[in-house]
């Protein structure tokens, strides 16, 4: 991705129709665009005030009317001069407005923004750090309220602040160690006098706590992927409805006529749960057209990434030969959970039975017996522990960095140990591991982050953000 510093423009609102749509422009010298498009002198737009105006073509004809907002650098989202034009939210009229802006800005090099480029500029201009920038997109993409809350924690800088506190503690300890390195005769005393080991233990404990919180938060982001398998009429759709707590799938009493959506996202305690109902997946070779074939292949690809396969059976009828064939189709490395449904008919009691081959759970999807057992087991499976604390919506990247920092601190602790007279603590190595730990932590907020990684992160944003 090629980011230069020329002014950029994009439609900032979602594609489709809506009450209001926004075209956003950011960069230097954009007052000429204000003058041209809003038919007004740039100076007349008071920064951060809404001005009702016509948006006009070069010949003076009106494209739309709406509000113009002007933000003077550095007091804007990107840290540059920003112009936001709020017009009517139709795809055509917004495209006309954008085209007009690009035309009016041709002489100052105005171009279309790339995905995430506004936020990338905000990062480069220190309006937010990398973890906060990731919070922006995670908030937009959040699929449950709990995920949105956690993303907003990251966006507000709470996660970054926690990381920064760890970095500061390590920096202090490094300064102590490095000062001592200049006076070798005092090395051995130093660790005792400054309680360097105690400080290191404190930092390691704090890091562990952050890691625990971040990995719980990562669950809110990534959720749980379930495959729901079983013969027609065992109650798959009913189970989905019971889990979701509302009617999301179509329940039918006639075998084989189920018209469930193939992948359904529900939530359990705020965790997004993606359920693939295999009733909807046929063999790709049965597909009647290309679109359907691609859909089927995608679904099978999703099956391979499932955390668990739920094999559902009718407890009032017992397993059949068809059930054996069902499980044969699934990847071997994914754990299978057996749900025995309709215990209201069979007379079983709601129960969970952890057998060596798989966990068996006895439920009734219609009168909801045993549903809490099932929910608890699903959450247990992905390691969800309900905590009262607000979580950071961490990403894989953050978890890897936290883990690496943790490992460096562990090696540092080994260098600081001196069990026998023969091995003096290796202070220089101790200091080096501290430095490495600090570097890994700082990569979370984007210090020492390569342009390539930044490119990858921001390119996943939507255009106009
Ligand atoms: P699917 O084909 O596996 O998705 O099965 P459905 O969810 O469409 O259910 C098939 C039929 O079984 C419907 O008439 C449901 O009302 C009924 N059913 C589902 N779960 C239960 C249950 O736990 N107890 C009883 N008595 N009937 C159920
Ligand atoms: Zn169904």
Automatic annotation (TrEMBL):
K(+) binds at residues 233, 252, 254, 257. GTP binds at residues 233-238, 252-258, 277-280. The keyword tRNA processing applies. Homodimer. Heterotetramer of two MnmE and two MnmG subunits. Its EC number is 3.6.-.-. Belongs to the TRAFAC class TrmE-Era-EngA-EngB-Septin-like GTPase superfamily. TrmE GTPase family. Binds 1 potassium ion per subunit. SUPFAM superfamilies: P-loop containing nucleoside triphosphate hydrolases (SSF52540). Residues 223-383 form the TrmE-type G domain. HAMAP family: GTPase_MnmE. This is tRNA modification GTPase MnmE.
